[in-house]
Amino acid sequence: MRLYYVLDSRINLRITCGQLCKQLNLGIEIVIPQSLTADRQIINPRLDMLPDYPFERVRGLLDHLPAPGNLEPVALSLGEPQHPYPDFVGEILHANRHLYGKYPPVAGTPDFRRAVADWLNRRYDLPDGMVRADDHIAPCAGTREALFRTAFLAVPPKKAGKQPVVLMPNPFYQCYAGAAVAAGAEPIFVNTLAENGFLPDFAGLDEGILARTALVYFCTPGNPQGAVADLAYLEALVALSRQYDFTLVVDECYAEIYNGDPPPGTLQACAGDGDLSGVLVFHSLSKRSNVAGLRSGFVAGDGELITLFRRLSEYGGSPTPLPVFAAATALWQDEEHVVANRALYREKFDLAERILSNRFGFYRPDGGFFLWLDVGNGEAATRELWTQAAIRVLPGSYLTAEDGIGDNPGDRYIRVAMVHDYAVMEDALARIAQTL
Ligand SMILES: Cc1ncc(COP(=O)(O)O)c(C=O)c1O
Question: pTM higher than 0.85 for the full model?
């Protein structure tokens, strides 16, 4: 008998695969990725703490199960926008193709930095001179790697004489946990539940944990629940970062996809005294402009941290090609496609509201492009949707860690990425409503 190894949602991140094998002394062949076994001498044993990435786990859950042959499969598991991106992207890349032969500058081009600074100032109405193109902005090749790398500049060997802590919401973008673990910190997951508006209460944590906190990852609008932190929440979080002297990383990559008013940004929360110390915000073109494959984003904030970030980039970063900088510059200068993009998402959330409202705890998220549906058992619903409706979604528990008392706040949920066009989503949402 062959048992495919899928990390159970109730298994805590702290249980290594080696321990798991010993616990499962069942006399059956367990197929697990070799590199994750404790038997093999991997160089950094901390990486054993990381379960397979959620998309790998979905493949493990579904790939061996047949989907109905008469239905076109639809992948709603991946947050990869399928809306068109502006034609000028291709034109600019083509016009600048002679620059692919050059190593690009790690700090980006002056035009790129200026376009980003102008966008930040416009979007968040920042005080003059608070965010300066050359001092407070660094480009990145998509934000995932940059978020990950930030842990290496923000996590010291010890904080308050002990192992440092990295805090993050639960559910969380998986990169945060990977970064915390790889940088030698203890990841602590702070539940974001419906009853607290899906916002983590970092300030309510134990004093001992806050004293050890070196870095906080926070995301607004959040993935997957789409909660938007208001300015008061962000100001309190900035104040907490100063009180406990930790780096505050706010992932704002969904900032331009929203339902009502534009979500406030963390730089606005610093505008009172203009002090950016300890604060970094991350923005990406992947969601704003539908160019996930272009790999372009930026980090902005504390000048000293930006200098360190660039220094780390010099050693181990992946610089953005010059033609990409040219296209990215034009994208940050253009709002028309962003407005049109947002309108497409709004139409699809209207649709979801019509098809799903009053079911699965449906609510219309303030931002982002996910539905977070309470289906009772997320893994079972994911299997059912695949085998009966050829729809792939993500079980909520693949984005969450157990809380301290053994419950997993994602168990009941599925995440549905509203990334396809209207017609595909209309068909897919109807299939979800019929199946569950
Ligand atoms: C919350 C969150 N942050 C960051 C990213 C990374 O996006 P990118 O690396 O394309 O900029 C994603 C991508 O899905 C995300 O969902």
Answer: yes
